[in-house]
Design brief:
Elements: E1 3-7, E2 13-18, E3 28-33, H1 36-52, H2 63-73, H3 80-98, H4 108-118, H5 124-143, H6 171-181, H7 187-194, H8 200-205, E4 211-212, E5 217-220, E6 223-227, E7 230-234, E8 243-246, H9 249-256, H10 275-288, H11 298-309, H12 314-321, H13 326-332, H14 343-350, H15 353-356
Antiparallel strand pairs: 1-2, 2-3, 4-5, 5-8, 6-7
Helix pairs in contact: 2-3, 3-4, 3-5, 12-13
Length: 361
């Protein structure tokens, strides 16, 4: 950081110091003195004051420093979950590889070396997410003329040797799970996920006011997500995720046994449950029930599969799942059949009611 000195028409000396910013907007501070030497002294003192205040020159910033600027300025208007994802990629993953490297010194080979090492313990998808997230830092630097090129461009992500394989329950496995949880509050999210196709965040945000027990309709109006240890409300994933649909009669009958106020599946204190905590609980339920491991999100796969198997149209299935694109729904579906039936009735018939009906414990 340097300053400039000029002599004014009134005889005084003026010193100016350009203060680094993240944008093209120029920001300057001025000092004045009766002599050139005094003006130079004031400039040096001003520069020292600015540097001691922690103002970072973007052109001399490390990746860690500039990434923090990026998070603090550009990312503040993004959703909490998006910000959390960026922070994880930047501060937890990338920082250990390139955090101390000057931003302007980072080359594509450095990013490639990082990804090659990172891929040894992470999936191809996670590697791509990391590249995409840290690429935003470099794009922002280019936008503000700190960099000319993005070192993430052209980097190759190693292919997974064994891609993740979804395990989708069949009707028998699902009914075994339902038998295990029926009569406990743990059946609530499982019914909503498997027979109504709700996402984890949508289950956690569902309230009793969102269920019309007279018409069997469920209204998905919000989602609750966990950001770190905090649980907060956010908008549904897409515009089409904000939806209403008729639930299977069996689901309505079971939910009515638990009907109360507030959230449908809350914590003990009545506040919204942390989806991350429930994911751990769900895995334990499967283990205790002696069932194969599957993710809670894969209950949506089960829901889509059962609809397709029993002849529900792609359009209706997409509307129930809250997909804006029918092709997305097709990716969830794994079994073909020519059977035709109403979606709610189809999903209702999956349940072997005589095997699972129990009173609430």
């Amino acid at each position: 950081m340097e300053g400039s000195i000029t002599k004014r028409k009134d005889g005084r000396w003026q010193g100016a110091v350009d203060i680094p910013t993240l944008t093209d907007k120029r920001k300057r501070k001025f000092v004045y003195a009766s002599t050139r030497a005094e003006c130079r002294k004031k400039i040096n003192e001003l520069i020292e004051e600015i540097e001691n205040d922690g103002v970072i020159n973007p052109t001399k910033a490390t990746f860690r420093e500039y990434a923090q600027m990026y998070l603090d300025t550009y990312c503040v208007n993004l959703s909490p979950t998006t910000i959390e994802g960026y922070k994880k990629s930047i501060t937890k993953y990338a920082d250990s590889y390139i955090g101390n490297t000057l931003l302007k010194k980072i080359l594509p080979i450095h990013i490639q070396e990082m990804i090659n090492e990172f891929a040894k313990t992470h999936s191809e998808k996670t590697c791509k997410n990391l590249i995409g997230d840290i690429s935003g830092v470099f794009k922002y630097a280019i936008l503000n003329k700190v960099l000319k090129t993005n070192p993430c461009v052209g980097v190759k992500v190693p292919k997974d040797t064994e891609p993740y394989k979804y395990y989708i329950y069949n009707e028998e496995e699902f009914n075994r799970l339902l038998v295990y949880v029926t009569g406990t509050k743990e059946e609530i999210p499982i019914l909503l996920g498997a027979l109504c196709g709700l996402r984890m965040s949508e289950v956690m945000g569902l309230t009793w006011n969102d269920i019309n027990f007279d018409t069997n309709e469920i209204h998905v109006r919000r989602a609750y997500v966990h950001v770190g240890a905090e649980v907060m409300q956010k908008k549904t994933k897409t515009k089409t995720s904000y939806r209403s649909f008729q639930a299977p009669q069996y689901v309505i009958e079971r939910l009515e046994l638990y009907k109360g106020v507030g959230f449908v599946y809350p914590k003990k204190d009545g506040t919204a449950e942390n989806g991350g905590n429930y994911g751990i609980r769900f895995s334990k339920i499967l283990k205790n029930a002696g069932l194969p491991h599957t993710r809670f999100h894969d209950l949506r796969h089960f829901n889509a599969t059962m609809m397709l198997k029993n002849g529900v149209s792609d359009k209706e299935a997409a509307e129930r799942l809250g997909h804006s694109d029918i092709n997305m729904t097709k990716r969830y579906q794994h079994i073909l059949s020519n059977m035709k039936s109403n979606a709610a009735n189809v999903l209702n018939n999956i349940v072997k009611a005589s095997d699972v009906k129990k009173d609430v414990k």
